[in-house]
Write a structure and sequence with these properties.
It comes from Mariniphaga sediminis. The protein contains 16 helices and 17 strands. By secondary structure, the chain is α/β, with parallel strands linked by helices. The strands form 4 sheets. It has a 6-stranded mixed β-sheet, with helices on both faces. It starts with a strand and ends with a helix.
């Protein structure tokens, strides 16, 4: 089943509000075997709404409209629906009773606008809204289902979960859809695509691959469509096993897992503790670690050693090392990691020092140059990276890369 979402409201088109309804609906529909073909936003205008519905009807099995169902004059969706389905507004007694009961419980007097909300298109099946005053409306035309719901998020969600999805599950049109996301870190999108090109080319026809890059990671989403959900899970799982053989060092988790969660889990499982010394990342690594509930079990703490004086006084970095190699160097970041590990009594330590930008770079050390060190009970490693000239992305990428290096070290323990 293919679906289109039409959001109605000038407030979306002028940027006054963000359309979160479509994202939520799309996620829920996909989980229930309904493919979202298109998302469209239109003005509070009957002609524009009708035009969008005509276009959607040609391509979609299901069209869901959100917005424009309140008690005020600018809520015109019902009138547009009447025109489109050649019907008239009629009084719906049960809806009016629901509205009266809601207002009675809140000690609010009804007015004409509230009563008008019980005027509904005669051709629709009314979907009872138990959490609001505007009901949903279900229409069928030329093998296409049209459903209109309020734009208020909690009312829309109630109707989707309790009225719309239960009806759609019984009509036999929805297919099984399964999504699995592989989280990778350490390879740019283009290099990753090159490494897995043959694997991607040989994927079964019913599995689609999407690259979802961001400063934190490159996510690989596999989407499978078929008739048997369990078979799709087995099929996708087999392809992921093949992928793991190609890029074992770069896969760190699945779906919504974060590197903070993964490294935290490894530390907890192995009974190890962690300390952090940050310069260019400014505390962001500590933020990623402490965003995970229960991180106090393994995280000793961190030092944000932005100045050389702090590097020397708190972490024990040598003045001679700083003079000979500069703050952004393998030698300094190594001493930072060793110093914070000793000072905080941790099993492992992570340290960063770099040039986040946009200024401060040199020909020898351009903006984006970052040194990362991981100090453990057995050895200390350092590695150099050049991330680019965007300060915010440099901080994020440096922090993610540091946790990825830590993850690899922990895997070897």
């Amino acid at each position: 089943m293919k679906a289109e979402i039409i959001t109605i409201g000038d407030e979306i088109l002028i940027g006054q509000i963000v359309d979160t309804n479509s994202a939520w609906i799309a996620e829920q529909f996909n989980l229930n075997g309904i493919e979202i073909y298109q998302i469209t936003s239109v003005h509070d205008d009957t002609e524009h709404i009708a035009e969008a519905m005509q276009i959607a009807e040609k391509k979609a099995d299901l069209v869901i409209l959100t917005g424009g169902l309140g008690p005020t004059k600018d809520d015109i969706t019902k009138h547009a629906l009447c025109d489109y389905f050649n019907t008239k507004l009629v009084f719906h007694e049960q809806t009016f009773e629901n509205i009266k009961n809601r207002f009675k419980n809140r000690n609010i007097d009804l007015n004409k606008l509230n009563r008008d909300q019980a005027m509904l298109p005669g051709a629709c099946t009314v979907l009872t809204n138990k959490v609001g005053s505007a009901p949903g409306m279900w229409f069928e035309k030329n093998d296409t289902i049209f459903v209109s719901v309020p734009g208020v998020p909690f009312e829309m969600k109630y109707l989707v979960e309790n009225e719309i999805l239960p009806r759609l599950r019984t009509n036999g049109k929805a297919k099984a859809i399964f999504h699995k996301t592989v989280q990778t870190q350490g390879l740019p999108e283009s290099m990753l695509a090159e490494k897995i090109e043959n694997w991607e080319t040989s994927l079964p026809e019913n599995i689609k691959l999407a690259y979802l890059p961001n400063p934190m990671s490159v996510r690989l989403r596999l989407s499978a469509i078929g008739t048997d959900l369990e078979e799709l899970k087995r099929l996708v799982g087999g392809e992921i096993e093949k992928l793991k053989q190609l890029i074992p060092d770069y896969i760190f988790g699945y779906d919504n897992e974060t590197l903070g969660e993964i490294t935290g889990r490894l530390l907890r499982e192995k009974g190890l503790t962690l300390a952090v010394a940050e310069s260019c990342t400014g505390g962001y690594i500590s933020h990623l670690i402490t965003s995970v509930p229960g991180s106090s079990e393994y995280f000793r703490g961190g030092v944000t050693a932005y100045s050389n004086e702090v590097k020397k006084s708190l972490l024990g970095v040598s003045e001679l090392t700083l003079q000979n190699y500069g703050a952004v160097s393998s030698e300094v970041v190594r001493e930072m990691a060793l110093g914070v590990r000793k000072k905080l009594g941790a099993d492992f330590a992570v340290a960063t020092s770099g040039i986040a930008g946009p200024t401060g770079g040199t020909e020898e050390k351009p903006v984006g140059t970052v040194w990362i060190a991981i100090a453990g009970p057995e050895n200390t490693i350092t590695e150099k990276f050049i991330f680019g000239d965007n300060r915010e992305r440099n901080i994020i990428r440096s922090s993610q890369t540091a946790l990825q290096l830590l993850r690899r070290q922990l895997m070897a323990v």
